[in-house]
Write a structure and sequence with these properties.
Radius of gyration: 18 Å
Mean pLDDT: 81
Largest sheet: 10 strands, mixed
CATH topology: Spore Coat Polysaccharide Biosynthesis Protein SpsA, Chain A
Number of strands: 12
Low-confidence stretches: 1-17, 224-231, 293-314
CATH superfamily: Spore Coat Polysaccharide Biosynthesis Protein SpsA, Chain A
Number of helices: 12
CATH class: Alpha Beta
Strand content: 15-25%
Number of domains: 1
Distance between the termini: 42 Å
Helix content: 25-40%
Amino acid sequence: MLACLSQGRRLVSCPTSVLPLVTAIITTCARPHYVYEALASVCAETYRELECVVVDDGGAFELPSAGLTRDVRVLRSDGRGGVAHARNLGLAAARGEFVIFLDDDDVAMPDRIATLVDAAQRHRAELCFGMTRRIFAGSAIELASVPTHTRSFDTIGLCDVITCAPHINSVLVRTAALRAVGGFDLEAAHFDDWSAWIRLADQKVRMYSVGDVVAEWRLHGEGLSAGVMQIRAMKARLIALFDHLKNRLSEDGVRAIAIARHVVASSDVHTYDDYANAMHAARETLTSATSTTASPETRHATARSPRRAGLGGF
């Protein structure tokens, strides 16, 4: 039996026995008009060694009666514990060597997992991420893909992850590694996933990024990011995140987030792109703060010139 892995623009076949099992986790909370499309996109992914888990956080999700092309497990929380709690439930139940997540209002590209598994295997990465296309739901308006200001599509390190947060929908991570750092951060409001990526990078976990768009992030009024922007809380929540992480990182990590906190406190930050643009300007200082113990591969990758810049909101 053969399965296909994406390699650049070419598909290559290899025995399924060498492919790791991946657990794809969809978290949902009372948004049936979105979640079925998210589920359909995961079921349509080309990667075959896949189990699908839906975590229903206090809603009334029911599997569709027909049309599913994969077996799907449904987990239910005992109340609305929030997205970090739901993600951790899925992580605890995962049987796969790797896990990947999808919010209920977003969509996976068909080769999302195949692309990321291929890169993770070729580069021996514990975490691999691609780009996420941002669109306004119900329109053809498209913003620059995130993460913005990506330094290179290569091995990355702590300063990369602090400067440009990989979106949850585009990250493939080894299950054991994510569990080892405590999973998603229940105390990091709005940034539970970013906190996890920062803590993994601080542990010198090998990370790799690819330039492929692997997921679609739909911006709409019901989304968490929209709510943060409406209450103009982005700056305060960024500062709170960095203060929260001070006691959870190495000396290099503490120096790096101190720089990020100073940049945020002294800048006009209302959106993710405001933050990314401000951090881009401070990149040299941030790189110096994290270069004392960085691996040669990471130092080489972070020395390259930027390739992307962003527009629009978080």
